[in-house]
Specification:
heterotrimer; A alpha/beta (275); B alpha/beta (284); C mainly alpha (265); A: alpha/beta; six-stranded mixed beta sheet; 10 strands; 39% helix; C: 265 residues; 2 domains; two-stranded antiparallel ribbon
Chain lengths: 275, 284, 265
């Protein structure tokens, strides 16, 4: 069931201050997990550790039954794909076609098989029309879609989105978010998304809350987000629906806390209102 | 005195095959002393528009009046330097403009360029750093050692130190976490109310526009689609629908309630205002 | 920038554009050797004929090719001046008191200028008809046999292609930083020397910082997608020699043989 097992993981960039401190968690195969926390809370460090871009100081990481170490690192990178934050700095090829091909080349896919694969995955992310476009002529959202195609083309078991929408405009954010949801529904992929978007969190299966290098909560969004006191304590955002319930409580109106605004509105309608 | 755009057009690479009209005969008056948001889809001309305010770009046609100076295509660039002192322009991701060895030196760089003495420049830098809540213990640190949010504050202080009358910011909260973004917006509100600065912000975030700004200018394909007060803009749901904008949550909640027959007439800004208005409707 | 045509790619549709970059690089090298053979004016005439017909086949305008000479103009004039002072053979053309200009000064200069012009023409014919990336691929393939001498042909090619990929981004970044610093009162055109130095520093330092950040991001992205320097990988773009490529090679071979014969005779 579990495809990622992390135990007592710790990492320090400078040898003094730990960015990740004794973190343990498991992630279920096929689940969609969001990781939230302030900038500098250790979220991205965990992502880089999971894919072996940083070498852990202590603890263990097991991915699909394989221990992450120098020996297994390439096997693990075959299983885990990552989409980073900056759309420009992860576009390696000179055109969309070449960029999707880059990963295939690294995995020694025979040249004659490449074009059909490239076309298949470009189509999946709705970039078929832009196969020969250069990155300079694409929007941020389009570039991120190409990055996703490049990752999917390697058939990973796990895909990590490291704040992949944070540099995009609202339209681009929306495109990528909808795509992540779709991936979660269609495939057996395990998805980990590092995000600041509290609305995205509320539709995920599990959420990990990080603060100052520690995991302070890990559970279903209903459990975690309804624990508003703890979130507000570390100055994290809570969903608007909860803010509204809390504000109503201050006015003496008790409404059950909900993740969806619609349900809160429905509950308000059930109150004894003046006509 | 307001900022006035009169029939301003801006064409990039005129006469080449790549020619592109980013602004088309813009007529616009931005009020003094207010916090104005400029919104619009990517490519609608927002960045081009704001770069006219301190004459980094000159209009291809028409003229811009800023602080009793006129910017037009035949303006001599030499006269523009003093305008850049009075109109502070903060680019997107301004932390990339930091370069000095110490934070204090970096912030004092702007005033020094505008002929202030070393002492005057340092005094202005210290005042600006205090405005953005950077502690004096940081003065001698390298700006490159700061966290992302702090770097951005220092970069903004670098503009504030020139003591501009108008501050223009291009997506100042991009890439910050929600808490950092909120603190940033509160800073701009304070600069506006406490120090009387005219502030113009290019933004994609409707919560910020709704909660902190007075007026909103919507650009679309290089033209002004509408220019309204923020309250008017969100009151009429037609604007958000037509422009494919997801309204702020308070407005969404108000609209949902209205759809269920509960209409809240008062203008509400915060979730507490909204709860108060709902409570008024509840019997006892 | 606009008038600088040396090394610029022109996206036209010609039979020369479609040739294999390897064939074009080898042909260019052969012609360069031919240019250095002492085959006299007849030889140069022959090379010029070939090069001009190549440029014609590539649909390049002569104006474009001549523009590429511009940066070399100063060098040529300088050469002439030096030769006038140094070379004292041949017959006297002009004499001013004790100073005389000899005919060989002109002939020698002309020799070098003709060679230089031919060299620029042939390299322009290559770079204008071959995409920089294809050129890199060609170089990579041609360097492969040298792998046994530890020439990292693939790494060199990867380095060049990534540099080419990021040049437009870095130009944009430079313009952005320039505008940001201009907004802080930097004047890159005027000011005292000290101010100018500060102005340049205010541009260079941020550019370096952002370039390093980019490099780090890029290295992470490449590694995460399974790139390992030195490891075996396949290649998407495969070069294939066709009939026209062999014709080009044969023609350039014939040219160099003709010139060898001319220089022996």
């Amino acid at each position: 069931m579990e495809c990622i097992k992390v135990k007592d993981l710790a990492y320090s960039y400078d040898g003094e201050n730990y960015a990740v401190k004794n973190v343990s968690f498991n992630i279920k195969r096929g689940s969609y997990t969001t990781i939230i926390g302030h900038n500098g809370s250790g979220k991205s460090t965990i992502a880089k550790l999971l894919i072996g871009l940083l070498e852990k100081n202590q603890g263990s990481i097991e991915i699909e039954g394989l221990e992450l170490n120098m020996e297994n690192i390439y096997k693990i990178r075959n299983k885990v794909g990552i989409v980073f934050q900056n759309p420009d700095n992860q576009f390696i090829g000179s055109t969309v076609r070449d960029d999707i091909a880059f990963g295939l080349e690294n995995h020694c896919v025979p040249q004659i098989q490449m074009d059909p694969i490239i076309e298949e995955f470009a189509k999946k992310v709705n970039m078929s029309e832009f196969l020969d476009s250069e990155p300079g002529h694409l929007s941020g959202g389009q570039k991120q879609r190409v990055a996703i195609a490049g990752v999917l083309a390697m058939h990973p078991d796990i895909i990590i989105f490291d704040e992949s929408t944070s540099m995009l405009d609202p339209q681009g954010k929306d495109e990528i978010k909808r795509f992540i949801y779709q991936l979660h529904q269609n495939k057996q992929l395990t998805i980990i998304s590092i995000t600041h978007d509290i609305e995205e969190v509320s539709v995920s299966d599990d959420v990990i809350v990080m603060n100052d290098g520690n995991i302070i909560m890990h559970g279903k969004p209903e459990e975690v987000l309804l624990n508003d006191k703890k979130l507000i304590d570390i100055k994290l955002d809570v969903p608007f629906s909860i803010k509204l319930s809390l504000a109503l409580a201050k006015q003496g109106i008790k409404i059950e806390k909900q993740l969806s605004l619609e349900k809160v509105v429905d509950a308000i309608c059930q109150l004894d209102l003046k006509k | 005195m307001p900022i006035r755009f009169e029939k301003v057009s801006h064409v990039y690479s005129d006469g080449s095959p790549f020619t592109y009209a980013a602004l088309k005969e813009i007529d616009l008056e931005i009020a003094e002393g207010k916090l104005t948001a400029i919104i619009g889809a990517t490519g609608s001309g927002k960045s081009t528009l704001v770069q006219h305010l301190n004459a980094l770009l000159l209009p291809s046609n028409g003229k811009v009046e800023v602080l009793d100076r006129i910017i037009s295509s035949d303006e001599k660039p030499t006269k523009l330097k003093s305008l850049r002192k009075d109109v502070g322009l903060v680019f997107q991701f301004p932390e990339y403009q930091l370069f000095e060895e110490t934070i204090l030196k970096d912030v004092a760089f702007g005033p020094k360029n505008f002929e202030f003495t070393e002492e005057e420049a340092n005094a202005k830098a210290k005042k600006a750093l205090a405005m953005v809540n950077i502690d004096p213990s940081y003065y001698e640190k390298s700006p490159l050692d700061l966290s992302g949010g702090q770097k951005r504050r220092v970069a903004i202080a670098g503009i504030l130190a020139m003591d501009p009358k108008i501050i223009v910011l291009d997506e100042p909260t991009a890439g910050l976490d929600p808490q950092g973004a909120k603190a940033m917006m509160e800073l701009f509100k304070e600069l506006n109310t406490k120090y009387g600065k005219t502030i113009i912000i290019v933004s994609h975030d409707m919560e910020h526009v709704f909660n902190y700004c007075d007026d909103v200018v919507v650009l679309e394909h290089g033209s002004v689609r509408c220019h309204l007060s923020v309250d008017q803009f969100f009151k009429d749901s037609k604007w958000c629908e037509e422009l494919h904008i997801i309204p702020p949550f308070v407005i969404q909640a108000k609209q949902m309630l209205k759809a269920k027959g509960i209409e809240i007439m008062a203008d509400v800004k915060t979730v507490d205002d909204l709860a108060y208005e709902i409570a008024k409707k509840v019997k006892n | 920038m606009g008038s600088f045509t040396l090394g610029k790619y022109l996206p036209l549709n010609s039979c020369i554009h479609k040739l294999d970059p390897r064939a074009k690089i080898i042909a260019m090298l052969i012609v360069l050797i031919a240019i250095f053979l002492p085959a006299g004016w007849l030889g140069y005439g022959l090379i010029a004929l070939c090069v001009v017909s190549l440029i014609f086949l590539a649909k390049l305008s002569l104006k474009f090719v001549l523009k590429a000479m511009k940066p070399m103009m100063f060098m040529m004039v300088f050469l002439l001046v030096v030769n006038i002072f140094v070379i004292k053979t041949g017959f006297v053309i002009v004499s001013l008191g004790s100073f005389a200009i000899y005919s060989d000064a002109f002939i020698q200069t002309l020799y070098i200028v003709v060679r230089l012009v031919l060299m620029i023409m042939i390299t322009t014919a290559l770079t204008a008809t071959t995409k920089p990336l294809d050129l890199t691929l060609g170089i990579e393939d041609l360097l492969k046999p040298f792998a046994r001498f530890k020439v990292p042909s693939h790494e060199i090619a990867m380095l060049i292609s990534i540099a080419l990929r990021f040049i437009p981004d870095l130009i944009e970044e430079t313009q952005r930083i320039m505008k940001a610093q201009t907004s802080r009162g930097v004047d890159l055109k005027e000011g005292k020397l000290k101010e100018k130095i500060m102005a340049i520093l205010s541009l260079i330092v941020p550019l370096f910082v952002s370039a390093f950040q980019r490099a780090e991001d890029l290295a992470n992205a490449m590694e995460a997608r399974g790139y390992a320097p030195g490891a075996a990988r396949t290649r998407y773009k495969v070069l294939k020699m066709e009939r026209n490529d062999y014709i080009l090679l044969a023609a350039s071979g014939a040219l160099v043989i003709a010139l060898i014969i001319l220089s022996i005779l």
